[in-house]
Amino acid sequence: MKQAFELLVSGPEADQKWARQLPDGETCVGRAPQRGWSVTWDRRISREHFTLHVRDGMLGIRCLPTAANPILRPTGGRIDKSFLAAGDSFRVGKTMFFIDQPDCSKNANISYEFSWEQLVIVRQLNLDSLADVTEAINSACDSKTFAATVGRILVEKLDHGDRVAVVNVDKTDSNDIVKPLFFKNRQAAARHQIDYELLNESVSKRTPVLHLDRLSARSNRTGQHWAYCVPVKISESEDCWRCICVSGRFDKASSVDATVDRLMADVSLAAQLAQLEALVK
User: CA–CA separation, 276 vs 5, rounded Å?
Assistant: First the structure.
């Protein structure tokens, strides 16, 4: 059986990533190739930068004459023309490329599900925060007031995370309605971005879900992008959910278990806040 290959691509921002299985034959990769795969976010990547060629279970790469910047190995050496294997990686500009064996999920993320039980009493709200949220819930005239209070506390109390968002998801009709109620960038350079794939998975499974970028989990050169969503049902009669979404980046990648341990206290705090509205009311 011939070996198949998958190309994982990861830029400096959390939403700059994709994973695709390489077809037999030649595939051109660049910022805007006439025919091929686009990596639009990195100006250091030329319109047509390199080709990948799959034939008889072998994978080759060739840097094109139109490439303005070099293709670099993890060691810093240049690639002009070479064979590649699963596990190899290379970089152009600020974008990392990783060769992998195809994953049946065709997903650029590793997904981890938290159980509600493992989040209990991991981290307790302090009394000031608890009183603040309770007062906001009792006096709130609309969802935005509550969401703003929850969001403000998360921005202040979380140990990790660049972006915080509180959104409503209405799945009552065939077309899901996503309504952002609050968002805040904790870092000046961070960009607000709602991960709809994460939202849908978390609500469908009715449990907090963490996404880790598959490429950064294998390579320390890009750090590690992550995002989690905590959903709580807010209507008994309709399929409506309040979701707390937090995303960020660690400078150094680690295993899934280590990342889960590092984020556990923050996810527990978000879960407590998400559940408070229903408990108080």
Answer: 47
Paired tokens of 78: 């240049």
Structural domain spans, the chain: 6-100, 109-280
Whether CATH 3.30.450 fits 109-280: yes
pLDDT digits (tens, 9 = 90+) for 239-280: 888 899 998 878 776 777 888 888 998 999 898 888 876 555
57/43 Cα distance (integer angstroms) = 32
For domain 6-100, which architecture applies?
Answer: Sandwich (2.60)
Measure CA 170 to chain center.
22
More confident residue, 197 or 39: 39
The torsion angles phi and psi of 126, rounded to 5 degrees, stand at -75, 165
78 forms beta bridges with 72
Confidence (pTM) = 0.63
Is residue 186 within 8 A of residue 173, CB to CB? The reply is: no
Q: Which of 101, 76, 87, 82 is nearest to 22 (CA)?
A: 101
Burial 226-249 (b: 16+ CB within 10 A, else e): bbbbbbbebeeeeebbbbbbbbbb
Question: Does the structure show a pLDDT above 50 at 219?
Answer: no
Q: Which residue has the higher pLDDT, 89 or 15?
A: 89
